[in-house]
Protein backbone atom coordinates (compact mmCIF):
# COMPACT_ATOMS: atom_id res chain seq x y z
CA UNK A 1 0.00 0.00 0.00
CA UNK A 2 1.31 3.45 -0.79
CA UNK A 3 0.15 6.70 0.75
CA UNK A 4 0.01 9.50 -1.78
CA UNK A 5 -0.25 13.22 -1.17
CA UNK A 6 -3.62 14.32 -2.51
CA UNK A 7 -2.15 17.56 -3.83
CA UNK A 8 0.35 15.57 -5.88
CA UNK A 9 -2.54 13.65 -7.48
CA UNK A 10 -4.25 16.86 -8.52
CA UNK A 11 -6.81 16.69 -5.70
CA UNK A 12 -7.90 19.54 -3.46
CA UNK A 13 -10.81 20.11 -1.10
CA UNK A 14 -11.80 23.12 -3.19
CA UNK A 15 -13.07 20.66 -5.85
CA UNK A 16 -15.37 18.95 -3.37
CA UNK A 17 -18.96 19.85 -2.57
CA UNK A 18 -19.61 20.70 1.08
CA UNK A 19 -22.01 17.73 1.36
CA UNK A 20 -19.29 15.08 1.05
CA UNK A 21 -16.86 17.10 3.18
CA UNK A 22 -19.50 17.35 5.93
CA UNK A 23 -20.18 13.61 5.89
CA UNK A 24 -16.47 12.69 6.06
CA UNK A 25 -15.91 15.25 8.82
CA UNK A 26 -18.84 14.06 10.95
CA UNK A 27 -17.68 10.44 10.76
CA UNK A 28 -14.05 11.36 11.49
CA UNK A 29 -15.11 13.49 14.49
CA UNK A 30 -17.15 10.56 15.81
CA UNK A 31 -13.91 8.54 15.84
CA UNK A 32 -14.36 6.53 12.64
CA UNK A 33 -12.21 6.20 9.55
CA UNK A 34 -13.88 7.75 6.51
CA UNK A 35 -12.81 8.21 2.90
CA UNK A 36 -14.13 9.24 -0.48
CA UNK A 37 -13.82 6.30 -2.83
CA UNK A 38 -14.72 5.20 -6.32
CA UNK A 39 -15.65 7.26 -9.34
CA UNK A 40 -15.42 10.61 -7.54
CA UNK A 41 -11.70 10.21 -6.76
CA UNK A 42 -10.98 8.64 -10.16
CA UNK A 43 -12.72 11.36 -12.14
CA UNK A 44 -11.14 14.21 -10.17
CA UNK A 45 -7.69 12.74 -10.80
CA UNK A 46 -8.48 12.58 -14.50
CA UNK A 47 -9.69 16.16 -14.55
CA UNK A 48 -13.29 15.09 -15.19
CA UNK A 49 -16.45 16.25 -13.50
CA UNK A 50 -17.55 13.48 -11.09
CA UNK A 51 -21.16 12.38 -11.24
CA UNK A 52 -21.29 11.93 -7.49
CA UNK A 53 -19.15 11.16 -4.47
CA UNK A 54 -19.37 7.95 -2.48
CA UNK A 55 -18.08 7.62 1.07
CA UNK A 56 -16.75 4.53 2.82
CA UNK A 57 -16.11 4.02 6.51
CA UNK A 58 -15.37 1.47 9.22
CA UNK A 59 -18.60 2.49 10.98
CA UNK A 60 -21.39 -0.08 10.60
CA UNK A 61 -24.72 1.09 9.13
CA UNK A 62 -26.15 1.24 12.66
CA UNK A 63 -23.24 3.40 13.83
CA UNK A 64 -23.63 5.65 10.79
CA UNK A 65 -27.27 6.04 11.76
CA UNK A 66 -26.17 7.02 15.30
CA UNK A 67 -23.89 9.72 13.87
CA UNK A 68 -26.43 11.25 11.46
CA UNK A 69 -29.72 10.40 13.15
CA UNK A 70 -32.73 11.36 11.07
CA UNK A 71 -30.56 12.46 8.18
CA UNK A 72 -29.67 8.80 7.62
CA UNK A 73 -31.60 5.91 6.12
CA UNK A 74 -30.38 2.34 5.87
CA UNK A 75 -31.16 0.74 2.53
CA UNK A 76 -30.39 -2.44 0.58
CA UNK A 77 -30.49 -6.16 1.20
CA UNK A 78 -27.65 -7.70 -0.71
CA UNK A 79 -25.55 -4.64 0.11
CA UNK A 80 -26.71 -2.79 3.20
CA UNK A 81 -25.86 0.90 2.77
CA UNK A 82 -26.50 4.18 4.53
CA UNK A 83 -28.00 7.10 2.68
CA UNK A 84 -27.05 10.35 4.38
CA UNK A 85 -28.75 13.59 3.46
CA UNK A 86 -26.47 16.58 3.55
CA UNK A 87 -28.25 19.77 2.63
CA UNK A 88 -30.15 18.94 -0.55
CA UNK A 89 -27.77 16.19 -1.55
CA UNK A 90 -27.67 12.53 -0.79
CA UNK A 91 -24.40 10.79 -0.03
CA UNK A 92 -24.09 7.02 -0.14
CA UNK A 93 -22.03 5.80 2.80
CA UNK A 94 -20.86 2.18 2.69
CA UNK A 95 -19.19 0.18 5.42
CA UNK A 96 -15.88 -1.60 4.65
CA UNK A 97 -16.75 -5.07 3.48
CA UNK A 98 -15.02 -8.38 4.05
CA UNK A 99 -15.34 -11.39 1.75
CA UNK A 100 -18.61 -13.20 2.51
CA UNK A 101 -18.02 -15.73 5.34
CA UNK A 102 -20.41 -18.22 3.89
CA UNK A 103 -20.90 -17.11 0.34
CA UNK A 104 -24.53 -16.99 -0.69
CA UNK A 105 -24.08 -17.51 -4.40
CA UNK A 106 -26.15 -18.63 -7.36
CA UNK A 107 -25.36 -21.78 -9.33
CA UNK A 108 -23.10 -19.78 -11.65
CA UNK A 109 -21.10 -18.29 -8.76
CA UNK A 110 -22.89 -14.95 -8.57
CA UNK A 111 -22.89 -13.38 -5.10
CA UNK A 112 -26.45 -12.95 -3.85
CA UNK A 113 -26.11 -11.78 -0.23
CA UNK A 114 -23.17 -10.06 1.20
CA UNK A 115 -23.06 -8.06 4.43
CA UNK A 116 -19.86 -8.90 6.30
CA UNK A 117 -18.09 -5.86 7.61
CA UNK A 118 -14.32 -5.81 7.33
CA UNK A 119 -11.16 -3.76 7.08
CA UNK A 120 -10.12 -1.27 4.44
CA UNK A 121 -7.74 -3.87 2.93
CA UNK A 122 -10.60 -6.33 2.55
CA UNK A 123 -12.84 -3.61 1.17
CA UNK A 124 -10.31 -2.67 -1.49
CA UNK A 125 -9.98 -6.25 -2.79
CA UNK A 126 -13.71 -6.43 -3.44
CA UNK A 127 -13.83 -3.37 -5.66
CA UNK A 128 -13.90 -3.85 -9.41
CA UNK A 129 -11.12 -1.86 -11.07
CA UNK A 130 -7.86 -0.57 -9.64
CA UNK A 131 -8.78 2.99 -10.65
CA UNK A 132 -12.01 2.69 -8.65
CA UNK A 133 -10.19 1.59 -5.50
CA UNK A 134 -8.41 4.71 -4.30
CA UNK A 135 -9.32 6.05 -0.87
CA UNK A 136 -9.14 9.81 -0.43
CA UNK A 137 -9.24 11.41 3.02
CA UNK A 138 -9.80 15.10 2.21
CA UNK A 139 -9.11 16.42 5.72
CA UNK A 140 -5.68 14.83 6.05
CA UNK A 141 -5.02 15.28 2.33
CA UNK A 142 -3.90 11.72 1.66
CA UNK A 143 -4.85 9.03 -0.87
CA UNK A 144 -4.42 5.34 -0.04
CA UNK A 145 -3.44 3.28 -3.07
CA UNK A 146 -3.27 -0.47 -2.50
CA UNK A 147 -2.60 -1.62 -6.05
CA UNK A 148 -0.59 1.00 -7.94
CA UNK A 149 -3.83 2.39 -9.27
CA UNK A 150 -2.04 5.66 -9.82
CA UNK A 151 0.06 3.96 -12.55
CA UNK A 152 -3.09 2.70 -14.26
CA UNK A 153 -4.44 6.24 -14.16
CA UNK A 154 -1.24 7.51 -15.75
CA UNK A 155 -1.17 4.72 -18.36
CA UNK A 156 -4.90 4.99 -19.00
CA UNK A 157 -5.47 1.31 -18.37
CA UNK A 158 -8.55 -0.40 -17.05
CA UNK A 159 -7.45 -3.28 -14.83
CA UNK A 160 -9.70 -5.57 -12.83
CA UNK A 161 -8.60 -6.47 -9.32
CA UNK A 162 -8.03 -10.24 -9.02
CA UNK A 163 -8.71 -12.93 -11.57
CA UNK A 164 -10.86 -11.44 -14.38
CA UNK A 165 -12.84 -14.63 -15.07
CA UNK A 166 -13.71 -15.00 -11.41
CA UNK A 167 -14.62 -11.33 -11.07
CA UNK A 168 -16.95 -11.54 -14.09
CA UNK A 169 -18.53 -14.71 -12.75
CA UNK A 170 -19.11 -13.12 -9.33
CA UNK A 171 -20.88 -10.20 -10.93
CA UNK A 172 -21.43 -10.30 -14.71
CA UNK A 173 -22.44 -6.62 -14.69
CA UNK A 174 -18.70 -5.94 -14.41
CA UNK A 175 -18.54 -6.79 -18.13
CA UNK A 176 -20.80 -3.84 -18.84
CA UNK A 177 -18.84 -1.67 -16.44
CA UNK A 178 -15.63 -2.59 -18.28
CA UNK A 179 -17.00 -1.27 -21.56
CA UNK A 180 -18.60 1.74 -19.93
CA UNK A 181 -15.43 2.90 -18.21
CA UNK A 182 -13.22 2.10 -21.21
CA UNK A 183 -15.48 4.25 -23.39
CA UNK A 184 -16.11 6.99 -20.87
CA UNK A 185 -12.49 7.44 -19.83
CA UNK A 186 -11.02 6.45 -23.21
CA UNK A 187 -8.87 3.87 -21.40
CA UNK A 188 -7.49 0.69 -22.89
CA UNK A 189 -8.69 -2.58 -21.44
CA UNK A 190 -5.88 -4.61 -19.80
CA UNK A 191 -4.74 -7.62 -21.90
CA UNK A 192 -5.69 -10.16 -19.19
CA UNK A 193 -9.31 -8.93 -19.43
CA UNK A 194 -9.32 -8.93 -23.23
CA UNK A 195 -8.11 -12.51 -23.19
CA UNK A 196 -11.14 -13.83 -21.33
CA UNK A 197 -13.80 -11.31 -22.37
CA UNK A 198 -15.31 -13.53 -25.06
CA UNK A 199 -18.85 -14.61 -26.05
CA UNK A 200 -18.29 -17.60 -23.78
CA UNK A 201 -18.76 -15.40 -20.71
CA UNK A 202 -21.40 -12.93 -21.86
CA UNK A 203 -24.38 -15.32 -21.43
CA UNK A 204 -23.73 -14.93 -17.67
CA UNK A 205 -25.65 -11.69 -18.04
CA UNK A 206 -28.82 -13.75 -18.36
CA UNK A 207 -28.62 -14.25 -14.57
CA UNK A 208 -28.91 -10.53 -13.97
CA UNK A 209 -32.35 -9.12 -13.31
CA UNK A 210 -33.86 -7.13 -16.21
CA UNK A 211 -34.30 -4.24 -13.75
CA UNK A 212 -30.60 -4.03 -13.00
CA UNK A 213 -29.79 -4.37 -16.69
CA UNK A 214 -32.15 -1.52 -17.51
CA UNK A 215 -30.33 0.66 -14.97
CA UNK A 216 -27.00 -0.33 -16.47
CA UNK A 217 -28.23 0.34 -20.00
CA UNK A 218 -29.31 3.81 -18.86
CA UNK A 219 -25.81 4.46 -17.54
CA UNK A 220 -24.42 3.43 -20.91
CA UNK A 221 -26.81 5.76 -22.73
CA UNK A 222 -26.16 8.74 -20.48
CA UNK A 223 -22.42 8.63 -19.80
CA UNK A 224 -21.66 11.04 -22.68
CA UNK A 225 -19.81 8.50 -24.87
CA UNK A 226 -22.65 6.43 -26.21
CA UNK A 227 -21.35 6.62 -29.74
CA UNK A 228 -18.01 5.20 -28.64
CA UNK A 229 -19.48 2.36 -26.61
CA UNK A 230 -22.00 1.09 -29.19
CA UNK A 231 -19.47 -0.71 -31.44
CA UNK A 232 -17.82 -2.11 -28.31
CA UNK A 233 -21.14 -3.61 -27.22
CA UNK A 234 -21.27 -5.45 -30.52
CA UNK A 235 -17.60 -6.48 -30.55
CA UNK A 236 -17.79 -7.93 -27.05
CA UNK A 237 -21.12 -9.65 -27.64
CA UNK A 238 -22.91 -7.58 -25.00
CA UNK A 239 -25.38 -6.12 -27.49
CA UNK A 240 -27.06 -9.46 -28.12
CA UNK A 241 -27.43 -9.95 -24.36
CA UNK A 242 -29.00 -6.54 -23.77
CA UNK A 243 -31.06 -6.12 -26.92
CA UNK A 244 -31.88 -9.62 -28.10
CA UNK A 245 -34.34 -8.53 -30.79
CA UNK A 246 -32.33 -5.66 -32.20
CA UNK A 247 -29.99 -6.60 -35.04
CA UNK A 248 -26.39 -5.92 -33.96
CA UNK A 249 -25.78 -3.21 -36.53
CA UNK A 250 -25.32 0.47 -35.99
CA UNK A 251 -27.53 2.09 -38.60
CA UNK A 252 -27.02 5.72 -39.57
CA UNK A 253 -30.14 6.53 -37.56
CA UNK A 254 -28.80 4.87 -34.40
CA UNK A 255 -25.40 6.47 -34.87
CA UNK A 256 -26.88 9.94 -35.36
CA UNK A 257 -29.06 9.53 -32.30
CA UNK A 258 -26.05 8.42 -30.26
CA UNK A 259 -23.94 11.38 -31.40
CA UNK A 260 -26.83 13.69 -30.69
CA UNK A 261 -27.26 12.25 -27.19
CA UNK A 262 -23.54 12.71 -26.44
CA UNK A 263 -23.62 16.28 -27.73
CA UNK A 264 -26.57 17.14 -25.54
CA UNK A 265 -24.78 15.79 -22.48
CA UNK A 266 -21.66 17.72 -23.38
CA UNK A 267 -23.53 21.01 -23.39
CA UNK A 268 -25.30 20.17 -20.15
CA UNK A 269 -28.73 19.38 -21.58
CA UNK A 270 -30.87 16.68 -20.05
CA UNK A 271 -31.69 13.55 -21.99
CA UNK A 272 -34.28 10.87 -21.64
CA UNK A 273 -32.70 7.42 -21.98
CA UNK A 274 -36.07 6.08 -23.13
CA UNK A 275 -35.61 8.14 -26.29
CA UNK A 276 -32.63 6.03 -27.28
CA UNK A 277 -34.64 2.88 -26.63
CA UNK A 278 -37.25 4.30 -29.02
CA UNK A 279 -34.47 4.69 -31.60
CA UNK A 280 -33.02 1.20 -31.06
CA UNK A 281 -36.40 -0.49 -31.22
CA UNK A 282 -37.72 1.52 -34.19
CA UNK A 283 -36.72 -1.07 -36.80
CA UNK A 284 -38.12 -4.07 -34.91
CA UNK A 285 -41.27 -1.98 -34.36
CA UNK A 286 -41.66 -1.28 -38.09
CA UNK A 287 -41.12 -4.92 -38.92
CA UNK A 288 -43.72 -5.96 -36.40
CA UNK A 289 -46.13 -3.36 -37.86
CA UNK A 290 -45.58 -4.90 -41.28
CA UNK A 291 -46.37 -8.29 -39.85
CA UNK A 292 -49.74 -7.14 -38.52
CA UNK A 293 -50.55 -5.13 -41.65
CA UNK A 294 -49.86 -8.16 -43.83
CA UNK A 295 -52.44 -10.01 -41.74
CA UNK A 296 -55.00 -7.35 -42.54
CA UNK A 297 -54.95 -5.56 -39.19
CA UNK A 298 -55.99 -1.92 -39.46
CA UNK A 299 -52.98 0.43 -39.26
CA UNK A 300 -53.74 2.01 -35.86
CA UNK A 301 -54.28 -1.37 -34.30
CA UNK A 302 -51.18 -2.77 -36.03
CA UNK A 303 -49.04 0.02 -34.55
CA UNK A 304 -50.52 -0.37 -31.07
CA UNK A 305 -50.02 -4.12 -31.08
CA UNK A 306 -46.55 -3.92 -32.62
CA UNK A 307 -45.48 -1.41 -29.97
CA UNK A 308 -46.67 -3.64 -27.16
CA UNK A 309 -45.02 -6.73 -28.68
CA UNK A 310 -41.64 -5.13 -29.21
CA UNK A 311 -41.51 -3.63 -25.73
CA UNK A 312 -42.64 -6.87 -24.15
CA UNK A 313 -39.85 -8.77 -25.86
CA UNK A 314 -37.26 -6.18 -24.86
CA UNK A 315 -38.49 -6.43 -21.27
CA UNK A 316 -37.17 -9.99 -21.08
CA UNK A 317 -33.68 -8.42 -21.16
CA UNK A 318 -34.02 -4.92 -19.77
CA UNK A 319 -37.34 -4.18 -18.18
CA UNK A 320 -38.46 -0.73 -19.24
CA UNK A 321 -40.43 1.20 -16.61
CA UNK A 322 -44.04 1.87 -17.43
CA UNK A 323 -43.64 5.65 -17.88
CA UNK A 324 -40.72 5.06 -20.27
CA UNK A 325 -42.75 2.47 -22.21
CA UNK A 326 -45.57 4.95 -22.66
CA UNK A 327 -43.07 7.61 -23.73
CA UNK A 328 -41.58 5.30 -26.37
CA UNK A 329 -44.96 4.33 -27.80
CA UNK A 330 -46.02 7.96 -27.90
CA UNK A 331 -42.86 8.96 -29.77
CA UNK A 332 -43.58 6.24 -32.32
CA UNK A 333 -47.23 7.21 -32.61
CA UNK A 334 -46.20 10.84 -33.11
CA UNK A 335 -44.36 9.74 -36.25
CA UNK A 336 -47.66 8.98 -37.97
CA UNK A 337 -49.30 12.16 -36.73
CA UNK A 338 -46.42 14.40 -37.75
CA UNK A 339 -46.13 12.78 -41.15
CA UNK A 340 -49.61 13.55 -42.26
CA UNK A 341 -51.23 15.99 -39.83
CA UNK A 342 -54.75 17.14 -40.34
CA UNK A 343 -54.37 20.87 -41.06
CA UNK A 344 -56.71 21.81 -38.21
CA UNK A 345 -54.57 19.84 -35.82
CA UNK A 346 -51.20 21.31 -36.70
CA UNK A 347 -51.16 23.94 -33.97
CA UNK A 348 -52.48 21.52 -31.36
CA UNK A 349 -49.86 18.97 -32.40
CA UNK A 350 -47.09 21.53 -32.04
CA UNK A 351 -48.26 22.18 -28.48
CA UNK A 352 -48.59 18.53 -27.57
CA UNK A 353 -46.50 17.29 -24.63
CA UNK A 354 -44.86 14.67 -26.82
CA UNK A 355 -44.30 16.96 -29.81
CA UNK A 356 -40.68 17.82 -29.05
CA UNK A 357 -39.57 14.21 -28.68
CA UNK A 358 -41.63 13.09 -31.68
CA UNK A 359 -40.26 15.88 -33.82
CA UNK A 360 -36.65 15.24 -32.78
CA UNK A 361 -37.15 11.60 -33.65
CA UNK A 362 -38.65 12.46 -37.05
CA UNK A 363 -35.84 14.87 -37.88
CA UNK A 364 -33.20 12.33 -36.87
CA UNK A 365 -34.85 9.79 -39.17
CA UNK A 366 -34.93 12.30 -41.99
CA UNK A 367 -31.34 13.41 -41.52
CA UNK A 368 -30.17 9.82 -41.54
CA UNK A 369 -31.64 9.33 -44.99
CA UNK A 370 -35.07 7.90 -44.19
CA UNK A 371 -37.06 9.03 -47.24
CA UNK A 372 -40.35 7.86 -45.75
CA UNK A 373 -40.50 11.05 -43.65
CA UNK A 374 -41.23 12.86 -46.97
CA UNK A 375 -39.50 16.02 -45.82
CA UNK A 376 -41.91 16.55 -42.95
CA UNK A 377 -39.03 16.77 -40.45
CA UNK A 378 -37.76 19.92 -42.14
CA UNK A 379 -41.32 21.16 -42.56
CA UNK A 380 -41.91 21.02 -38.81
CA UNK A 381 -38.47 22.44 -38.16
CA UNK A 382 -39.24 25.52 -40.26
CA UNK A 383 -42.79 25.74 -38.96
CA UNK A 384 -41.66 26.20 -35.36
CA UNK A 385 -39.57 29.23 -36.24
CA UNK A 386 -42.42 31.04 -38.01
CA UNK A 387 -44.51 33.98 -36.81
CA UNK A 388 -48.24 33.40 -36.27
CA UNK A 389 -49.06 34.87 -39.73
CA UNK A 390 -46.42 32.78 -41.43
CA UNK A 391 -47.73 29.70 -39.65
CA UNK A 392 -51.23 30.36 -40.97
CA UNK A 393 -49.90 30.76 -44.48
CA UNK A 394 -47.80 27.61 -44.15
CA UNK A 395 -50.82 25.65 -42.97
CA UNK A 396 -53.05 26.80 -45.82
CA UNK A 397 -50.30 26.06 -48.33
CA UNK A 398 -49.90 22.63 -46.77
CA UNK A 399 -53.66 22.22 -46.94
CA UNK A 400 -53.77 23.06 -50.65
CA UNK A 401 -50.90 20.75 -51.39
CA UNK A 402 -52.54 18.01 -49.40
CA UNK A 403 -55.84 18.46 -51.18
CA UNK A 404 -54.06 18.26 -54.54
CA UNK A 405 -52.19 15.11 -53.90
CA UNK A 406 -52.64 13.13 -50.73
CA UNK A 407 -49.24 12.12 -49.54
CA UNK A 408 -48.40 8.59 -50.42
CA UNK A 409 -48.84 6.26 -47.52
CA UNK A 410 -45.62 5.52 -45.68
CA UNK A 411 -44.97 2.08 -44.26
CA UNK A 412 -46.88 2.65 -41.07
CA UNK A 413 -49.02 5.54 -42.18
CA UNK A 414 -52.70 5.29 -41.66
CA UNK A 415 -55.09 6.18 -44.47
CA UNK A 416 -56.21 9.67 -43.69
CA UNK A 417 -59.39 9.67 -41.75
CA UNK A 418 -62.33 10.94 -43.78
CA UNK A 419 -64.19 11.95 -40.66
CA UNK A 420 -64.38 15.62 -39.78
CA UNK A 421 -61.00 16.55 -38.36
CA UNK A 422 -61.05 17.44 -34.70
CA UNK A 423 -58.73 20.04 -33.31
CA UNK A 424 -58.31 18.05 -30.15
CA UNK A 425 -55.83 15.22 -30.38
CA UNK A 426 -56.92 11.79 -29.26
CA UNK A 427 -54.59 10.06 -26.80
CA UNK A 428 -51.47 8.86 -28.58
CA UNK A 429 -51.49 5.49 -26.91
CA UNK A 430 -53.85 3.62 -24.68
CA UNK A 431 -52.52 2.70 -21.29
CA UNK A 432 -51.13 -0.83 -21.51
CA UNK A 433 -52.46 -3.65 -19.36
CA UNK A 434 -51.38 -3.24 -15.73
CA UNK A 435 -48.42 -5.46 -14.80
CA UNK A 436 -49.49 -6.62 -11.36
CA UNK A 437 -52.49 -8.63 -10.39
CA UNK A 438 -54.05 -6.07 -8.05
CA UNK A 439 -54.10 -3.38 -10.74
CA UNK A 440 -55.46 -5.84 -13.30
CA UNK A 441 -58.24 -6.77 -10.92
CA UNK A 442 -59.21 -3.19 -10.26
CA UNK A 443 -59.24 -2.52 -13.99
CA UNK A 444 -61.56 -5.40 -14.74
CA UNK A 445 -63.94 -4.43 -11.90
CA UNK A 446 -67.13 -3.12 -13.51
CA UNK A 447 -67.86 0.56 -13.06
CA UNK A 448 -70.54 1.34 -10.50
CA UNK A 449 -73.79 2.30 -12.20
CA UNK A 450 -74.28 6.04 -12.11
CA UNK A 451 -77.35 7.02 -10.16
CA UNK A 452 -79.19 10.00 -11.38
CA UNK A 453 -79.34 12.37 -8.43
CA UNK A 454 -79.58 12.77 -4.68
CA UNK A 455 -81.11 15.55 -2.71
CA UNK A 456 -78.86 18.04 -1.08
CA UNK A 457 -79.76 19.42 2.35
CA UNK A 458 -81.28 22.49 0.71
CA UNK A 459 -83.51 20.28 -1.37
CA UNK A 460 -81.72 20.90 -4.66
CA UNK A 461 -80.71 17.92 -6.73
CA UNK A 462 -77.05 17.07 -7.08
CA UNK A 463 -76.21 14.85 -10.01
CA UNK A 464 -74.22 11.77 -9.00
CA UNK A 465 -71.76 12.48 -11.74
CA UNK A 466 -71.27 16.01 -10.45
CA UNK A 467 -67.50 16.69 -10.30
CA UNK A 468 -67.65 17.27 -6.57
CA UNK A 469 -68.82 13.72 -5.98
CA UNK A 470 -66.37 12.14 -8.36
CA UNK A 471 -63.39 10.35 -6.90
CA UNK A 472 -60.29 12.38 -7.50
CA UNK A 473 -58.32 10.71 -10.23
CA UNK A 474 -54.59 11.00 -10.07
CA UNK A 475 -53.24 11.34 -13.58
CA UNK A 476 -49.81 9.93 -14.31
CA UNK A 477 -47.37 12.80 -14.01
CA UNK A 478 -45.20 12.84 -17.10
CA UNK A 479 -43.68 16.22 -16.36
CA UNK A 480 -40.42 14.61 -15.23
CA UNK A 481 -40.00 13.00 -18.62
CA UNK A 482 -37.36 15.02 -20.34
CA UNK A 483 -37.49 15.16 -24.07
CA UNK A 484 -34.96 13.59 -26.36
CA UNK A 485 -32.24 15.18 -28.45
CA UNK A 486 -32.77 18.45 -30.22
CA UNK A 487 -30.73 19.83 -33.02
P1 LIG B 1 -19.76 6.37 -11.92
O1 LIG B 1 -20.49 6.78 -10.65
O2 LIG B 1 -19.00 7.45 -12.57
O3 LIG B 1 -20.59 5.60 -12.85
P2 LIG B 1 -18.32 4.70 -10.07
O4 LIG B 1 -16.99 4.01 -10.19
O5 LIG B 1 -18.46 5.69 -8.97
O6 LIG B 1 -18.62 5.33 -11.47
P3 LIG B 1 -20.53 3.37 -8.87
O7 LIG B 1 -21.48 2.43 -9.50
O8 LIG B 1 -21.01 4.66 -8.35
O9 LIG B 1 -19.39 3.58 -9.94
O10 LIG B 1 -19.80 2.55 -7.72
C1 LIG B 1 -18.95 3.16 -6.76
C2 LIG B 1 -17.77 2.25 -6.48
O11 LIG B 1 -18.24 1.00 -5.95
C3 LIG B 1 -16.96 1.87 -7.71
O12 LIG B 1 -16.00 2.83 -8.01
C4 LIG B 1 -16.35 0.56 -7.28
O13 LIG B 1 -15.23 0.76 -6.45
C5 LIG B 1 -17.46 -0.07 -6.46
N1 LIG B 1 -18.33 -0.92 -7.29
C6 LIG B 1 -19.47 -0.56 -7.91
N2 LIG B 1 -20.01 -1.58 -8.59
C7 LIG B 1 -19.19 -2.62 -8.39
C8 LIG B 1 -19.22 -3.97 -8.82
N3 LIG B 1 -20.20 -4.45 -9.59
N4 LIG B 1 -18.20 -4.78 -8.40
C9 LIG B 1 -17.22 -4.30 -7.61
N5 LIG B 1 -17.15 -3.06 -7.19
C10 LIG B 1 -18.11 -2.21 -7.56
MG1 LIG C 1 -20.28 6.75 -8.41
From TrEMBL:
<keyword id="KW-0547">Nucleotide-binding</keyword>
<keyword id="KW-0804">Transcription</keyword>
<dbReference type="InterPro" id="IPR025866">
    <property type="entry name" value="PolyA_pol_arg_C_dom"/>
</dbReference>
<dbReference type="InterPro" id="IPR043519">
    <property type="entry name" value="NT_sf"/>
</dbReference>
<keyword id="KW-0067">ATP-binding</keyword>
<feature type="active site">
    <location>
        <position position="128"/>
    </location>
</feature>
<comment type="similarity">
    <text>Belongs to the tRNA nucleotidyltransferase/poly(A) polymerase family.</text>
</comment>
<keyword id="KW-0808">Transferase</keyword>
<dbReference type="InterPro" id="IPR052191">
    <property type="entry name" value="tRNA_ntf/polyA_polymerase_I"/>
</dbReference>
<dbReference type="InterPro" id="IPR002646">
    <property type="entry name" value="PolA_pol_head_dom"/>
</dbReference>
<dbReference type="Pfam" id="PF12626">
    <property type="entry name" value="PolyA_pol_arg_C"/>
</dbReference>
<comment type="function">
    <text>Adds poly(A) tail to the 3' end of many RNAs, which usually targets these RNAs for decay. Plays a significant role in the global control of gene expression, through influencing the rate of transcript degradation, and in the general RNA quality control.</text>
</comment>
<dbReference type="GO" id="GO:1990817">
    <property type="term" value="F:poly(A) RNA polymerase activity"/>
</dbReference>
<dbReference type="Pfam" id="PF01743">
    <property type="entry name" value="PolyA_pol"/>
</dbReference>
<feature type="domain" description="Poly A polymerase head">
    <location>
        <begin position="34"/>
        <end position="159"/>
    </location>
</feature>
<feature type="region of interest" description="Disordered">
    <location>
        <begin position="424"/>
        <end position="459"/>
    </location>
</feature>
<feature type="domain" description="tRNA nucleotidyltransferase/poly(A) polymerase RNA and SrmB- binding">
    <location>
        <begin position="186"/>
        <end position="246"/>
    </location>
</feature>
<feature type="active site">
    <location>
        <position position="54"/>
    </location>
</feature>
<dbReference type="InterPro" id="IPR010206">
    <property type="entry name" value="PolA_pol_I"/>
</dbReference>
<dbReference type="InterPro" id="IPR032828">
    <property type="entry name" value="PolyA_RNA-bd"/>
</dbReference>
<keyword id="KW-0548">Nucleotidyltransferase</keyword>
<keyword id="KW-0507">mRNA processing</keyword>
<dbReference type="Pfam" id="PF12627">
    <property type="entry name" value="PolyA_pol_RNAbd"/>
</dbReference>
<keyword id="KW-0694">RNA-binding</keyword>
<protein>
    <recommendedName>
        <fullName>Poly(A) polymerase I</fullName>
        <ecNumber>2.7.7.19</ecNumber>
    </recommendedName>
</protein>
<feature type="domain" description="Polymerase A arginine-rich C-terminal">
    <location>
        <begin position="296"/>
        <end position="408"/>
    </location>
</feature>
<feature type="active site">
    <location>
        <position position="52"/>
    </location>
</feature>
Amino acid sequence: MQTLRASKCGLSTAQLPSSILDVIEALTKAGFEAYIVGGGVRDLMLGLNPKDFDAVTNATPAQIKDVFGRRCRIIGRRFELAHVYSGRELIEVATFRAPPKKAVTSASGMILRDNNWGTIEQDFIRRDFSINAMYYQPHTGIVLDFCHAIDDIKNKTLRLLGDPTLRFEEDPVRMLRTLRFAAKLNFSIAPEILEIFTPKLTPLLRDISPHRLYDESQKLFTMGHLNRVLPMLIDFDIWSQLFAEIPPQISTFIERAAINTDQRIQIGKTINPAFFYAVLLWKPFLERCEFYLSKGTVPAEARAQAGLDVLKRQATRTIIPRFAETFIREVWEMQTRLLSPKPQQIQALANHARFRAGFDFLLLREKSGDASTQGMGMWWDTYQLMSTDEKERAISQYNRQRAKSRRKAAVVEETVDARAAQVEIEPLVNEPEPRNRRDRKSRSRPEKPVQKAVSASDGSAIAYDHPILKRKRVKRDLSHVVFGPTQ
